[in-house]
Amino acid sequence: MNKVMVIGAGQMGGGIAQVAATAGLHVYVFDLNLEQAQQSVITIERFLEKAVAKKKITATEKADILSRIHITGELSRAKEVDLVIEAIVEKLDVKSQLFRQLDKICPPHTILASNTSSLPITEIAAATSRPQKVIGMHFMNPVPIMRLVEVIRGLATSDETFNTIEQLAKTMNKVAVEVNDNPGFVSNRVLMPMINEAIYCVYEGVATVEAVDDVMKLGMNHPMGPLTLADHIGLDTCLSIMEILHEGFADSKYRPCPLLRKYVKAGWVGKKSGRGFYTYD
Fold first, then answer.
1. Is 138 marked active-site?
2. How far apart are alpha carbons 163 and 160 in whole angstroms?
3. Which of 16, 24, 106, 238 is the least buried, fewest Cβ under 10 Å from its Cβ?
4. Is residue 117 annotated as part of the catalytic site, yes or no?
5. Are 31 and 109 a contacting pair, CB within 8 Å?
6. Greatest distance between any 2 Cα atoms in the chain
7. Is 232 a catalytic residue?
């Protein structure tokens, strides 16, 4: 595996591109918004500059990593790669349409991976003629720091595809954990109900935002409170995942808190919008 395309130049896509390039792969970063893609590379460069300052890498290594990252606005470049990792909006119809396009563009050997945090890999794979080569690679945020990658098999994902991706994760200095194709997988099936319940505590007047976070940090030794974490993830993303869990399991315990819905409707979606449960400059 020599070349990879990362689709989506947001925070997750940029992080995935960085770890892939650091692992020695040549990376095409595709985004319809080339300005966003350029900003993603600037963010990567700043991260690497800090690594050089801390003597974790050399200036030469930094230059080599950046030389392997290429911005493109042409999806047709996917015909040159061995792997595509999609990191776009968390909507099944949009992802399925993208995979349908990629299936026509990519050569037969190319593996198509989704960074989805909750959507069914089997359904995404069904949009292609190569379901055996479709897999989930759910990276954690921030990608360059967090070591976990949930590797999700669809119903038809082959052992060869899984083994290739597992080895690639190791090359990226990640720990690949195999997970079956269920709503929310493991990470968000456990994490999101906790965040949702923390929001209910505020909604029902049990405690303030700060108090809820302090209890979980000081009492449970969490490095970050659940409401601070929700702001960093994005409240719109949290709501989307809770809706997927609620629909997928038809269980009331996954019902999104009304306060979460209200904040998202107000545009208070967390750090990226400047306001969520906290206010950001």
1. yes
2. 5
3. 24
4. yes
5. no
6. 56
7. no
Computed on alpha carbons and rounded to an integer, the radius of gyration of the chain in Å comes to: 19
Would you state the structure tokens that stand for residue 67, as one six-digit string? Answer: 């030389």
The active-site residue, picked from 40, 115, 117, 196, is 117
Query: For residues 181 and 155, is the Cβ–Cβ distance under 8 A?
Result: yes
What's the pLDDT tens digit per position in 94-131? Answer: 999 999 999 999 999 999 999 999 999 999 999 999 99
- pLDDT-based confidence at 43, cuts 50/70/90? very high
Task: Please indicate whether residue 150 is annotated as part of the active site.
Answer: yes
Torsion of CA 43, 48, 52, 57, to 10 degrees: 180
Taking all residues of the chain, what is their mean pLDDT, rounded to a whole number?
97
Phi, psi for 90 (deg, rounded to 5): -85, 65
> In this predicted structure, what is the pLDDT of residue 72?
96
Catalytic residue among 40, 115, 138, 240: 138
Q: From CA 4, how far away is CA 137, in angstroms rounded? A: 13
CA distance readout (Å), 125 to 116, 129, 183, 276: 12, 8, 15, 34
86, 90, 150, 166: the active-site residue: 150
